[in-house]
């Protein structure tokens, strides 16, 4: 069986708050993308912009290999060193932590290769404070291109809201991607179910069931902690979440709960398909055993007759019958046909 890759622990022996990047993209340069916006203004730059009163600054950092740059950003926005440590440790579970000057999120961004059905998980860290949001992404892809376009074109409420609503929008964009994965898994399940009913159970279908179950379990493993984090986001009494935005955060919590319910339903369906596969395989084996049993049952009396007349006794009157051989073959054929007729009447074959 394949051996699971062993993750090297690069922080062993180091004190807390040590900034060590544990991901796989250490050679990629850090990319900075900043957006400064208000209801009447929008400025986008590839450099860090200064914060302004009455505006929201969103700094999107991609690639985390340059720990010195991450430390400078952390000092500039007064991000706690423990939060920066979690930013660079890219195997964190989803969570929300509250600090005196802001809220710190860890949210998994999931993507699915529709050809191989392999799941890719990227950790996205978000720190939000008064008038600013800093997001950290491990990969250089523009994950939030649609969201940035909405801000640039002043579509929706983002330009009229504060940093807490931007944080909600970022997490909501990530969660919307989960629905796409669930839809793809559901399509695969329906196709697999149709194949099982039309073509029967084969080893290929068994492998697909196992692959889908492992995929669903992997998604659920990452979504379960997110449910607690979003619930904590809704219930927080800190000054970083406006009362007018709690309705949207509650809707986000409902979306995560709905995804959890969908994952549970898909797990049950896949378990039922696995049970169906096992029953179908057992049914095929029973058919084979039934056929072999019928063949054995037919040949038992024929073997008995052949065994009797195969003995080397001299005083066997039937051996001297002129047409004994053909008579015996006729008796054996009649016996075989009679047994086959009985089996067919009883629907054993």
Mean pLDDT rating: 86
Q: What proportion strand?
A: 15-25%
Strand order of the largest sheet: 2-1-3-7-6-5-4
Which series of helices and strands comes N to C?
Answer: EEEHHEEEEHHHHH
Termini separation: 41 Å
What integer value in Å does the Rg equal?
34 Å
Annotated CATH architecture of the largest domain = 2-Layer Sandwich
Give the C-level CATH assignment of the largest domain. Answer: Alpha Beta
The count of β-strands is 7
What CATH calls the topology of the largest domain is Beta Polymerase, domain 2
Main pleated-sheet profile: 7 strands, mixed
DSSP helix fraction: 40-55%
Summarize the structure.
The protein has 349 residues and is an alpha+beta fold. The protein has 7 helices and 7 strands.
Protein architecture, described:
- With 349 residues, the protein is of the alpha+beta class.
- It has two domains: 31-280, CorA soluble domain-like (Beta Polymerase, domain 2, 2-Layer Sandwich); 285-345, Magnesium transport protein CorA, transmembrane region (Methane Monooxygenase Hydroxylase, Chain G, domain 1, Up-down Bundle), CATH 1.20.58.
- It contains seven helices and seven strands.
- It has helices at 67-76, 81-88, 145-152, 163-199, 203-235, 246-308, 324-345, and strands at residues 31-37, 42-45, 56-62, 95-99, 102-113, 118-129, 132-137.
- A seven-stranded mixed β-sheet has the order 2-1-3-7-6-5-4, sandwiched between helices.
- Helix 4 packs parallel to helix 6 and helix 6 (246-308) runs antiparallel to helix 7 (324-345).
- It is rod-shaped and about 120 Å long.
- The relative contact order is 0.08.
- The model is unreliable at 1-9 (pLDDT under 50).
